[in-house]
Amino acid sequence: MKIYFGFTVAGDRSAIDTARRVVELLEEHGHEVLTRHLVDANAWEADRLISPQDVYRRDMAWLEQCELFIAEVSGSSFGLGFETGYLLGATDKKVILLYRREFEQKVSLLITGNTHANCTLVPYGTLGEVEEFLTTSTVVRVPTSVPGGAETTHSI
Known about the structure:
Blueprint: E1 2-7, H1 16-28, E2 32-33, H2 43-47, H3 52-65, E3 68-72, H4 78-90, E4 94-100, H5 109-112, E5 119-124, H6 127-136, E6 141-145, E7 151-155
Parallel strand pairs: 1-2, 1-3, 3-4, 4-5
Antiparallel strand pairs: 6-7
C-alpha cells in the first residue's frame, strides 16, 4: 500500500524517534512510504533545495497517490493541518493521526476534537503503544497472496 506519512519539517521534531519507527515498521510490512524523507535529519534543508511551488506540487501528487495518510501530529505544523483537512474534505481516504498524550494541550483542537468518520485519532504515551496500534489496526492492511493466486488482506 502507498502511504503518505506526515511529520513536521519546521515544527517541534521531538517525536522523531517515533516517526522513524513508524516508517520503519510500515516498510517492514511491505508498504511504500512516499514521504520517508521526512524522518531524515536533513529534511528541512532538503525541502529548501526546491521551490515552495515544487514542494506543493510534489506533496499534492503524493496525497493523490496515497491509499492511506498517517501523521504524527504532536509537533505544531500548518502543513499537517492542511494535508489532513484536504484529505478529509476532498477525498474518502482514511486518515490516522498519532499524537503524544503529554502534548495533547498543545495540539490543535481541530485535531483532538476530530470526529470525521474517516479519521482515527491515536493518542499514545509510549512507542510501544504506537507499534501495537500499527500491528493490530484494521485500517492498516498488507496484501498477501493466497493459494490460487488470489489476493487477500490482513492487519499488520
